[in-house]
Amino acid sequence: MTAPAPSASAPSAAARLDALDGVRGAAALIVMGLHIAGCLNVGLLGHGYLMVDLFFLMSGFVLSAGYGARLSRGGAGLWFGARRLIRLYPLALLGLLAGAAAAFALAAGGLRPLEDRPALYLVLGALFLPWLGGGLISPFNGPAWSLQLELWINLAYGFVARWLTDRRLAVIVAIAGAGLLAVSLVNGQFDGGFANNDPGRSAGPWSYLVGWLRVGFSFPLGILLHRRWAAGRLHRIASGMTLWLAPAALLLVALPPPGLTPLYDLAMVGLLFPLLVVLCANAAVGGAARTVSGLMGRLSYGLYVLHGPILVGFRELEPAGMSPAGRLGWYGLAALCAIVAAALAERWIDRPARRWAARRDVGATTPISGTVQVQSA
Fold first, then answer.
1. pLDDT per residue over 91-146, tens digit each?
2. What is the DSSP string of 7-27?
3. Which of 127, 140, 319, 349 makes a 20 to 30 Å CA pair with 359?
4. How far apart are CA 356 and CA 351, in angstroms?
5. How much is the pTM?
6. Closest to 279 measured CA to CA, from 320, 249, 321
7. Residue 173 in contact with residue 221, Cβ under 8 Å?
């Protein structure tokens, strides 16, 4: 479905992309904050896991904007799949190797035992496949579980996009949403998919499938949302405060301690997040705000995929007897290391990979609204 030219009052496509980038960066920081809070044994950002659903939603929106028109003509599934692999695989592999290196180093130092099947975990991680034997889906890099789901649903989208009418997308969203509602109410919690058959993490033998319900709801909802927005039906949903409102809203969503009713999570994922994405799609960004948003967007993927192994290392190496202030500073240093690692990975791995792909496929991507190409997802 080709997006029509925007109305005279609609913001430029470049501005819209910058606003979404800024939100993605804020969400990545919140996810890292959630895991740091876990290391500190405090309940802050107890619902930060919902940022994963926002990532799925934005992925559907941005990929529909950038590639939906071409994919709807058919015959581009392999091309699209190759582009998604180039976009996701280098840093995902770096995160996997970093997690494995940390595990081996900590085991060699006698700080923690090595996982039982390290070679199998490496192979599964490199193939974007889950470990379902019990524990984390991605043992060497816990947050990578969502990247696996995103890659596979991206690949599926590339091959079936030509058949995805708005009605069929709505049916998929409705079925996945009903499944999420039922499972969440039965289990008493929304968060799932990152572990399987692990009572210590409140993950039953079918918990992995909850992850598929989450991506199966939010990703196609993002595609459907973009189509409505591209048709000009959502351009009036706008606010001049979006650049500050959206990150603040995400922080407020994440702040409550865990244990709220799963209906809270479902409301955030099904109502608030779509509203925030539309607000960002309609937001005009310029000057310093555009620079900051672009920087946060560029760092978001590396931060998400690399902070896990870094936090594992800091947690196991934490000096005994530290004061609360000292522990806060210790994990603040861990956060700084993760941000620096994300910046280096973006500069020397992610950016060259994207440029290489662009040189080999000049002119192949579909412009959004006829002005710019969407390359950020």
1. 999 999 999 999 999 999 999 999 889 999 999 999 999 999 999 999 999 999 99
2. PTTSPPHHHHHHHHHHHHHHH
3. 127
4. 9
5. 0.92
6. 249
7. yes
